[in-house]
Amino acid sequence: MAYLVYVLCALTSLACAVLLVRGYHEHRVKLLLWAGLCFIGFALGNILLIVDVVIGDTYDLALFRSLPVLGGLLILLFGLVMES
């Protein structure tokens, strides 16, 4: 059951990223680009979480799945500071 929730979270993050980047290409609002890149990081983190669940107790990917999320948040923070 948890695996299904992780897959749905990854798909939702990916859908948000696609919609935000597509919105940026239509309207050229920089904040949409920063938010889209942030959600790409979230989607990568969720995909690595799925991989971590599939691998099981063999390897611990906690650090590797946290790095894309941190990168996405830093990109969004940079975008918010640069746009204000």
Could you describe the 3D structure shown?
- With 84 residues, the chain is mostly helical.
- The protein has one domain (2-83).
- It is 88% helix and 0% strand.
- It has three helices and no strands.
- It has helices spanning 2-27, 30-55, 62-83.
- Helix 1 (2-27) packs antiparallel against helix 2 and helix 2 packs antiparallel against helix 3 (62-83).
- The longest helix has 26 residues, at 2-27.
- The chain starts with a helix and ends with a helix.
Blueprint (SSEs and pairs):
Layout: H1 2-27, H2 30-55, H3 62-83
Short description:
This protein has 84 residues and is mostly helical. The protein has three helices and no strands.
- Give the strand content: under 5%
Taken in chain order, the helices and strands follow as HHH
The count of strands amounts to: 0
> Which bin fits the share of residues in helices?
over 70%
Classify the secondary structure makeup into a structural class: mainly alpha
Whole-number total of structural domains? 1
Tally of DSSP helical segments: 3
The averaged pLDDT comes out at 95
Radius of gyration: 14 Å
Largest sheet: none
Summary keywords:
84 residues; mainly alpha; 88% helix; 0% strand
